[in-house]
């Protein structure tokens, strides 16, 4: 099956520091990856869509200078939370769309998530 | 605006019982509909994916149905187990921009 990994699984950092989260598709190529944020008892909220070799597309209200996304290869995308503050504390989940698609429209495979706590 | 609405918001059932979760959507044009299971503190895991022409798809004790005419889907869980306690999310993708719209999920609690 298709596996997506995230690293780290959890991170605690001080306010003002930057944190990088990696998302890897382990056994398939992903030209498109997605980054989500999820607050407790809420659904996933799409932050940005990352396409390999091009700039990410951010959803309305998401600061691109704060959440830096790099998708340098077909198997790796990174999200860097710059100058993190306590309100950035959340569960960050990435997903990858398989390419070529295994079925109509392709499928999205999710990573296990990264719990970020900013003190 | 594309929307996906799930019901109920939460559900408590006894172990061994069956249950059905609902998903209504307005996403158009339709590409596919997926059901995911998300355990607390984990990423969503795909249960089923259905296209326009598929009415029913099963994955073990999970059976999803799709009525593309009424834009409704359901997820039926048979002989529930404690490990079924999770959030179940319905996701519908459109063919235009290829964007996926997420439902808010149904939180299922299975009690012994």
Instruction: Please summarize the sheet with the most strands of chain B.
Output: 6 strands, mixed
N to C succession of SSEs of chain B: EEEEEEEEEEE
**Computed CA radius of gyration of chain B, to the nearest angstrom:** 13 Å
Question: What is the subunit organization of this protein?
Answer: heterodimer
SS elements, strand count of chain B = 11
List the keywords.
heterodimer, A: 119 residues, mainly beta, seven-stranded mixed β-sheet, four-stranded antiparallel β-sheet, 0% helix, globular, B: 112 residues, five-stranded antiparallel β-sheet, 11 strands
What does this molecule look like?
The complex is a heterodimer of chains A (119) and B (112). By secondary structure, chain A is an all-beta fold. Chain A is 0% helix and 55% strand. In chain A, strands 2, 4, 5, 6, 9, 10 and 11 form a 7-stranded mixed beta sheet that branches. Chain A has a 4-stranded antiparallel beta sheet with strand order 1-3-8-7, with no helix packed on it. Chain A is globular. In chain B, a hairpin with a 6-residue loop joins strand 4 and strand 5. Chain B starts with a strand and ends with a strand. Chain B is mainly β and 112 residues long. In chain B, strands 2, 4, 5, 9, 10 and 11 form a 6-stranded mixed beta sheet that branches. A 5-stranded antiparallel beta sheet of chain B has the order 1-3-8-7-6, with no helix packed on it. Chain B is globular and about 45 Å long.
């Amino acid at each position: 099956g298709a596996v997506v990994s995230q690293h780290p699984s959890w991170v605690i950092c001080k306010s003002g520091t930057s944190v990088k989260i990696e998302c890897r598709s382990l056994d398939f190529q992903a030209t498109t990856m997605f980054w989500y944020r999820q607050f407790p008892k809420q659904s996933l909220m799409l932050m940005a869509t990352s396409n390999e070799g091009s700039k990410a597309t951010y959803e309305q209200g998401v600061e691109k200078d704060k959440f830096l996304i790099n998708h340098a290869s077909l198997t790796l995308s990174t999200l860097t939370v710059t100058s993190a503050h306590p309100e950035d504390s959340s569960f960050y989940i990435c997903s990858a769309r398989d390419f070529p698609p295994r079925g109509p429209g392709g499928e999205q495979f999710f990573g296990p998530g990264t719990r970020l706590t900013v003190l | 605006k594309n929307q996906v609405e799930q019901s109920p918001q939460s559900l408590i059932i006894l172990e061994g019982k069956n249950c059905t979760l609902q998903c209504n959507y307005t996403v158009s044009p339709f590409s596919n509909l997926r059901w995911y299971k998300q355990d607390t503190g984990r990423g969503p895991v795909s249960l089923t994916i259905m296209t326009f022409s598929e009415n029913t798809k099963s994955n073990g004790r999970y059976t999803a149905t799709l009525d593309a005419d009424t834009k409704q889907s359901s997820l039926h869980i048979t002989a529930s187990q404690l490990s079924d306690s999770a959030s179940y999310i319905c996701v519908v993708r459109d063919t235009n921009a290829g964007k996926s719209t997420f439902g808010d999920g149904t939180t299922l609690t299975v009690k012994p």
